[in-house]
Design brief:
6 helices; disordered C terminus; mainly alpha; about 170 residues
Amino acid sequence: MNAAAESAPHGHDHNLQALRAIASFELAKGLIVLLAALAVVFMVGRDASDIADGILRLLHISPDHHFAQLFLDFADTLTDAKLWTVAAVATIYAILRFVEAYGLWYARTWAEWIALVSGSLYVPFEIYKLIHRQSVLHISILAINLIIVLYMAYLLKTGKGHLSSGNSHRLPT
């Protein structure tokens, strides 16, 4: 066997490892959003301003502060219908992240497209946020997202994200 043939599976292993790392990241994002959706559902039928006040007390934030007051005012506007809507949208978003994670785990081309498009949609907002408030967090979020988007573009352009049909890591299509 020649050197090129021997190195091909090794390259696929690196690509699969990278795809699975990204899939794990997407799964974590989906789980966080799903937990947030569940928290919103638990707020239905309760007094949102009491919950908001409790959160401020838990965090030792005085309700006299400007942003704390904005938070309390926002809580007063929440209705059960708004809470159900937020929970539904968050659940749909989480399902999309789970589907993407599944597809990336098994190196599916459609999942690479989802990752590329969804990641690209965030870039302008992340740049805007970075322009208005520079922080290590905002720089990190933009950098991670750009790495993922550029990597997905690379895989899609070169076709290196697709594993051979004989690879045991893939499910049948």
